[in-house]
């Protein structure tokens, strides 16, 4: 995996392993995730989103590159799963707070 902040690495590694207990600890308690036009607020909603996507689409993400755009860690990843158009390359835009993920926005 490319050079990533620890919490971002933890998020990708844990979700790929379906270890949602480890994945959720990468986020701040008041974190926000935006994906597919939906917003998930706080750890319970984010955990439900992660579990639902993994179950519905059997997703895995392969990190292709990482960079900083306007001081925001940004990751390009190839996401594979049981959804139309798989695999697809998505951009993951992060905002960190105290070394944890405070905001995650996923875009095509």
UniProtKB/TrEMBL annotation:
<dbReference type="InterPro" id="IPR037401">
    <property type="entry name" value="SnoaL-like"/>
</dbReference>
<feature type="domain" description="SnoaL-like">
    <location>
        <begin position="8"/>
        <end position="101"/>
    </location>
</feature>
<dbReference type="InterPro" id="IPR032710">
    <property type="entry name" value="NTF2-like_dom_sf"/>
</dbReference>
<dbReference type="Pfam" id="PF12680">
    <property type="entry name" value="SnoaL_2"/>
</dbReference>
<protein>
    <submittedName>
        <fullName>Nuclear transport factor 2 family protein</fullName>
    </submittedName>
</protein>
């Amino acid at each position: 995996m490319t050079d990533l902040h620890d919490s971002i690495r933890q998020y990708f590694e844990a979700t790929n392993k379906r270890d949602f207990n480890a994945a959720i600890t990468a986020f701040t308690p008041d974190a926000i995730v935006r994906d597919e036009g939906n917003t998930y607020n706080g750890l319970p909603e984010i955990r439900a989103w992660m579990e639902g996507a993994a179950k519905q689409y059997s997703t895995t993400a392969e990190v292709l590159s990482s960079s900083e755009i306007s001081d925001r860690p940004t990751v390009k990843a190839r996401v594979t799963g049981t959804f139309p158009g798989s695999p697809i390359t998505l951009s993951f835009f992060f905002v960190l707070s105290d070394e944890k993920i405070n905001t995650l926005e996923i875009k095509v």
